[in-house]
Design goal:
By secondary structure, the protein is mainly alpha-helical. α9 runs antiparallel to α10, α10 packs antiparallel against α17 and α19 runs parallel beside α24. The radius of gyration is 26 Å and the shape is globular.
């Protein structure tokens, strides 16, 4: 019918016509593993699951009761996630026009995901072969020699860990995308009835994804640890000690980091190139609203929310938790060995227990957000941020109690009876740090506060003043977070040092483990933080579906409020991720120095930057951050140019688009962004992987000829230090400035300073366009890069010596 109207030229107002949408779907995509599972008889599948869980519990029982506890909590969290999935999917999808739009978004997201992760998997297999080659020709540590673990065994263990980490990280990304492309239309439909119901669906959908991602990270490490424990006969005579076992898990963290980096880069380039192209031509040049169905790039923009903000963020948080758990396990084992603690398993497995409790307390926080009692009635728009904040407060209170219980259970030792209390305080420091980080980022990015309103006011005097104000706001926003991180690290280190744990020489040794516990405290509410993060893109997509399906203005008002809050939650969770990345990188750096000492069989406790080569390594690390950021932003710019040219071409060649007489070619924009983002993600990703390996190897050769045997390891250590420091500052600047620009635009769109279509609004759109690659491409990729540099140097340490 719609096509006939177009051909006859009789198409009137969109509201007067049946709301149809071109079906871009050819065939629903289901990953191979799920197709195989769906093809198995239900009874057979049930028996296989029972056997699988039985094997897991058997291996866990032979390792430690703590492992059994961790696995049990993870499985319970998966059951809760299944309940949430059933609850969300039971909600209605709304009228046919909403369903058609959601189908197109789902098809675009799943198609890109399939292509992107196919490319990533090929690169992961190639890198796995490189790791295997390196480990087959490297030296082993004294601990591995004493345990009878040869080069080949070590090589296969590391490669298997790497591939498992990559697969689990990819699955975490798929879960995030799968949930978001099904929840968005249900939030849109709920917004027709109640703002609170729409909020509840978006939150529970985010919670479903969060519980699976965090649970996957925890159970993956727990099962891998237990498998190695049983297979290698750990703690039996003539075998490996349990305190050395965590070092075998570093490949898992590297695999997770590798996938997360490319997922974040590819997804970030996709989502922001489409967004920039749609805004520049649609809003600025044509003067049409955001997510207007006449914009040829609107579907690509909505697809980008799912592949960039949901799939990539799921892989990102999975990697954050995996890296933090592994580094804390390494430090816990090292400290227990130095202090001659009789049963070190509590210190090693403590991170797994903390994140198991995270699943429990975050579930309570998610369920604390309820819908309105009245059904079928449009409730007044409440403040969604206040509701989410209440849920976060509930989660934090429970996390404090759970953390205290965990420390008393696992960290109590007779030789230092009060040590557990000091470590509990370290965890409290981490929890408070996370809360302060969320508050600081909210202050700088929420339009209820002065910084964003001042930025919006600067838009009234032009595009240039908006850019200047946004850059200055981003630069200023680095101050408070750095002060908070600094106080946290020093305080946690001091509490750990004074915990009463001493080594054989009488020196206190708990400082580094204290910072590890603080990092665990900061991530002890990670599942709820990811819930708030996933809330953002789901709400954004819901608003796009409402706009494209031409729903009443009152419905769009609800989704606009949810979208603005989603921008704030995304910014706050990015700030949270940067803070946790800073603490985790400090731990991984310490683990790297310990590993270098183990391989070189020489003490390696400090790095002297007064040595010229070491100072050069630091400069190279700082340079890496800036060049990586530049290439990531440039990738968005080049891809956005292609989108802009395509959208302009369609408006010129199809003048009937503006009058609803011709349909835009949405598929063309989707294809442009998908192919360009896959092409553009390779260059910055390769830079991140190759740089530390090349620098370490080159300076190793230089050190060989100049009589400095550890020069390569020292230069890489300096590269890590400078890259971490400059990366944290750069990521804070990019994330906060981008979030502030976005919400300054949202503030004007509420009617302030002339509202939509005003000169101030056009200037704010320019600022938002500049900030898009900052906050959703370069910024998020940077904190993944920081941790990946640490994990790759841990895995590749032998080639630096």
């Amino acid at each position: 019918m719609m096509d006939e109207d177009m051909e006859s030229g009789t198409m009137g107002s969109y509201h007067d016509k049946p709301r149809t949408f071109p079906n871009m779907r050819s065939k629903a995509y289901t990953p191979l593993i799920f197709r195989i599972l769906l093809g198995i008889n239900v009874r057979v599948l049930f028996i296989l699951l029972l056997l699988g869980f039985g094997a897991i519990f058997y291996v866990g029982a032979r390792t430690s009761p703590i492992i059994v506890f961790v696995i049990s909590i993870c499985i319970l969290s998966f059951l809760v996630a299944l309940y949430l999935m059933k609850w969300v999917l039971a909600k209605d999808e709304g009228p046919p026009e909403m369903v058609q739009i959601a189908d197109a978004i789902r098809d675009g997201a799943e198609g890109f995901f399939r292509t992107q992760y196919g490319t990533i998997s090929k690169m992961a297999l190639l890198l796995a072969l490189v790791i295997l080659f390196i480990y087959l020709f490297r030296d082993t540590t004294p601990q591995q020699e004493a345990a009878g673990i040869g080069r080949s065994t070590s090589a296969y263990i590391t490669v298997a860990s790497f591939l498992l980490g990559a697969v689990c990280s990819g699955f975490a990304g798929y879960v995030g995308m799968w949930v978001s492309v099904r929840a968005n239309v249900r939030v849109s439909s709920a917004a027709r009835r109640s703002a609170r119901e729409a909020l509840q669906i978006a939150t529970r959908a985010g919670g479903l994804s969060a519980l699976i991602v965090v649970g996957m990270a925890v159970i993956g490490i727990a099962v891998l640890y237990a498998t190695f424990y049983v297979w290698l006969g750990v703690d039996s005579p003539g075998s490996m000690k349990v305190t050395d076992l965590p070092l075998l898990l570093v490949g898992y963290g590297f695999g997770a980091s590798f996938v997360a980096l490319f997922a974040q880069l590819g997804g970030g380039i996709y989502t922001k190139a489409a967004d920039v192209g749609a805004d520049l031509v649609g809003k600025v040049e044509q003067g049409i609203p955001e997510d207007d169905p006449r914009n040829p790039a609107v579907i690509a923009d909505l697809v980008g929310d799912n592949v960039g903000d949901c799939a990539a963020r799921g892989a990102d948080l999975f990697e954050s938790i995996a890296a933090e758990i592994i580094s804390a396990m390494i430090l816990g084992g090292t400290m227990a060995q130095r202090c001659k603690i009789e049963d070190p398993s509590g210190f090693i497995l403590f991170p797994l227990v903390v994140h198991s409790f995270d699943l429990v307390v975050s579930s309570v926080g998610i369920f604390s957000i309820r819908g309105t009692r009245e059904s079928g009635v449009m409730s007044p728009i409440e403040d969604p941020m206040a509701i989410l904040q209440k849920g976060y407060s509930v989660t934090i209170v429970l996390a404090v109690l759970a953390f205290g219980l965990s420390t008393r259970w696992l960290l109590y030792v007779e030789q230092a009876p009060s040590a557990w209390f000091n470590f509990a305080l370290c965890g409290l420091i981490g929890i408070v740090t996370a809360y302060i980080f969320v508050c600081i980022t909210k202050y700088y990015t929420d339009y209820k506060h002065e910084p964003v309103r001042t930025l919006a006011l600067s838009s009234s005097t032009g595009h240039g003043t908006n850019i200047i104000a946004g850059v200055s706001l981003g630069l200023e926003s680095t101050g408070l977070p750095v002060l908070v991180i600094s106080v946290s690290i020093v305080s946690a280190y001091w509490l750990g040092q004074t915990a009463g744990l001493i080594d054989e020489t009488g020196n206190p040794t708990g400082g580094l483990f204290g910072t590890a516990v603080a990092t665990m405290g900061m991530l002890s509410t990670a599942a709820y933080i990811l819930t708030m993060d996933m809330f953002g893109p789901i709400a954004d997509n819901a608003g796009g579906i409402v706009e494209m399906s031409q729903q009443p203005e009152s419905v769009r008002e609800i989704t606009d409020v949810l979208d603005a809050v989603g921008n704030t939650t995304k910014a706050t969770t990015k700030g949270f991720a940067i803070g946790s990345a800073a603490l985790a990188s400090f731990l991984l750096f310490s683990a790297y120095m310990d590993e270098v000492a183990a391989f070189s069989r020489e003490p390696f406790k400090q790095v002297d930057i007064a040595i010229p080569e070491v100072f050069v390594g630091g400069l190279l690390g700082a340079m890496l951050i800036f060049v990586f950021s530049a290439w990531a932003c440039a990738a968005v710019g080049r891809t956005a140019q292609e989108v802009v040219n395509e959208v302009r071409r369609q408006f010129i060649e199809r003048p009937g688009i503006m009058d609803y007489k011709e349909k835009p070619d949405y598929g063309r924009c989707v294809a442009i962004v998908a192919s360009a983002s896959l092409r553009e993600m390779i260059k910055p990703g390769a830079l991140a992987i190759i740089s530390p390996i090349a620098v370490g190897f080159i300076f190793r050769i230089l050190g060989y000829y100049t009589g400095q045997p550890l020069l390569g390891a020292k230069v890489v250590a300096a590269l890590l230090m400078f890259a971490t420091v400059s990366g944290i500052l750069m990521a804070l600047f990019l994330n906060t400035a981008g979030g502030a620009w976005d919400n300054a635009k949202k503030y004007i769109e509420t009617g302030a300073l002339g509202g939509k279509g005003s000169d101030a609004h056009k200037a704010a759109i320019t600022g938002d366009t500049v900030g898009d690659p900052f906050k959703d491409t370069a910024g998020p990729s940077l904190h993944v890069l920081i941790k990946m540099l640490s994990t790759i140097t841990l895995v590749m340490a032998p080639i630096f010596l």
